[in-house]
Target: Putative proline/betaine transporter
Amino acid sequence: MSNGKTSMPAAADPSSLGSQRRPHSGDEVSKDTRRRVITASFIGNFVEWFDYAVYGYLAGIISSVFFPEADRQTALLATFGVFAISFFVRPLGGFIWGHIGDRLGRKQALSLSIVIMSVATFCIALIPGYNTIGVWAPVLLLLVRVVQGFSAAGEYAGASAFLVEYAPANKRGLYAAVVPASTAAGLLLGSLLAALLSTVLTAEQLNEWGWRLPFLLAAPMGLIGRYIRTKLEDTPAFLALADKEPVKAPALAMFKTYRKQLIIATGAVLLNAVGFYVILSYMPTYLSEELNFGAAESFLATTIALASYIGFIFLTGIASDKFGRKRMLITASVLFVVLTVPAFILLDTGNFLVIVLVQILLGAMLTLNDGTLPSFLAELFPTKVRYSGFAVSFNLSNALFGGTAPFVATLLIGLSHNKLAPGWYLVAASIVSLIAVLFAVETSKKPLQDD
Model:
């Protein structure tokens, strides 16, 4: 490293490969390696969004634990405010994790991020409530959420890049769909646990200690994910850069050379950012707090919708490989513009079957975007800045509009006294995403960019 010569990226050291020939593309990787790659990518996102799900689904209880002196809506706003503030550090995390991922390797970044993320999530379960330590309770909650947000900034982007670079050329959409499927699986488990706890525990037990139980699961799940990731080689696309001079500042190179792609990517993510957190995270709170639907029924409806969402995600991944990323993303935006508000009107019927069907519809529409977006974003940028381009665009849009979505939805309802406000917010996000995607080029049928 100190001999004055350009050094090879750490993760690209071929010594660990022995005498085996290094694969140059995902098409040359064995099926066993691909299975381990899929598992490793799945677990990290699963843990991350399991935490977000539990926090969102138990927001009403968490608000009473950390903000007991405020009125109901103010406490909810404060709880979602903490949720949103933790997202503001994600663009910074995107820069740092992108730099690590593009300079040292996708494996290095993902192995480190999952440890930090799991520890931070576990710590939420250990924070005393407001009645025990006063104002320090929400302060500690905020600090832990910020650490969690920072570590999560590299997870979605890194896992997507990892899968796309390992995938066969004609199945990048399907492989990348594992990432949103894992996030939905995390939300699904969070929903199931929240529903179970709400059913078997009394309100007093849930407020005193029951809400902490799901967060304790993060530590063992994170350790399993870390172990699997350390056993993998880095991606063929990244290893192929070993003989080339590495980019010293990937983020700077991205802003200098790939500004158009960055703007398109940030805009395209907007529907994902708002839609994901409104439909799959905030919805149980919306149904129970705003529409006075039963808490157990709200969790159950969301659980059913999440299960269907996971199936639709993989169908979307396959369809994006066949019909193209751009066509799928445009279709998603148009459907949301046309159908979102009518769907929210139907949610207010109070009929359980109608609510479940509406949530399934909204989830299916969202998969057209979510199932396509990981491969689309990864293909927009060349290998040398792929992690940075994905991480910065994805986290910037999520910081400004995703993490704030539950807060904004609650605030809009309070200001407008209109329960349809979250639906109109989704329509606005869809229009922005539609405009951004219209300026994009189709990437699904092209080889990954190396330079």
